[in-house]
Amino acid sequence: MKFIEKSYRYLCHFYMALAATSLLPAIYFIKIGASICHTQNDIVNICLDLLVILGIPVIMSLLALLWMKKQGEDSIKTGVSGIAPVSHECLPVYLGYIFVSLSLPVLMNGKIDWQTLIIVYVLICFFVTFSKTLCFNPLFIIFGYGYYQVTTKNGVKVFVITKRKIKKGEDNLIFEHLHKVNELVFIDTDND
Fold it and tell me: pTM for the full model?
């Protein structure tokens, strides 16, 4: 693999990790009562602050989805021998990140501890990027995506992110329009 292609892949995975874990700083900012908007009305300020703080992870996740859909095309036309939802297995990991954000310190004057926040967040993103995790982003669920462990008829296990509503025991599934996020992760664009 060429250096530029490899660098692009790592950049892509790092952005996916940033988007997937972006709730960590968002929850931290909510915890400390970070104020971005300054109008005369406190309720309007709170609503606008929440809109901005929570809107950034949503926008990052939308951009991640768009980026994933631009990756190389692939398919599973031989059918699958097994499929199982995995959202319930991945969600506890990301809930852990939220608990980490709640335990991050606040400076004595009530201000953001930028040093700790940045170090913890960047370390988590690097761990997620280099551990080649499954690109699970809990915000994708809001956009209607589900996460499935798919076993092909050849015995290869891959992770598929799809909007399809797959029923238990459904066989003869094929995925004609996949985009390869990494060696084991694909996004299905059939129902987009």
Answer: 0.84
